[in-house]
Predict the structure.
Amino acid sequence: MFALMGAAVLFTGISKSGFGSKVDFLGVVILAGLMDPGKAIGVMLPLLMVMDLSNLRAYWGKWSRSDALTLILGGIPGVMLGALFFTQVNQQVLQFLIGLISLLFLSWFCASHLSAVFTRMGPFSRRVGGLAGLVAGFTSFVSHAGGPAAAVYLLSKNISKTEYQASTVLVFWVINILKGGFYAGLGLLSRETLVLDLMLLPFALCGVWLGLQAHRKIPEKAFFVLMYVALAVSAVRLIWLSLA
């Protein structure tokens, strides 16, 4: 089981540092099928924050400042809504929601080539960006799945690959810091989860390094075919567990 957890964290690091956080929630989807989903998102947050710090150095100052700020301002109330929602649901509902969010985003990305579609449509307004940030903040809180919502807005802006990647790094660095306070208050961070974080930390750091290399050398399609298959299998399993 630990090997599967390590692989989940490794692929999260690769996605987060190399491919714009589009499927970095694969890690929590896998972990939520192995343990209590609340514990799973608690385990993942410190690891994501370490990845954020590693990525900030590599991408510092390369982001689109206005677009990142728009998403952050929308993400703040989204995180607050996520915290409120979390206090109202049980483990089975959270499992189902994590799996459902994963399948919805997976279906969206598989059904449309976002970069091409949104480039033809033209850039979205800041109001749409604020809404995307709200969704990103909420889904990030309950399942660390904020990347796709942010991607919808950023890909419409026709920015460079590096600007896009750097913007997601900055946005989720801020959102994850905000989430940390709520997670601590809700008891999702504990001595047990932090011990597990220390054991999984090498996988996180290795994933970040591999992601930085992959950002320059590996075609996105090759990476996402593998990740989408893994995400689909994990999400379906999680929904099955919640219903069973």
User: Anything to note?
Assistant: Residues 2-243 form one domain.
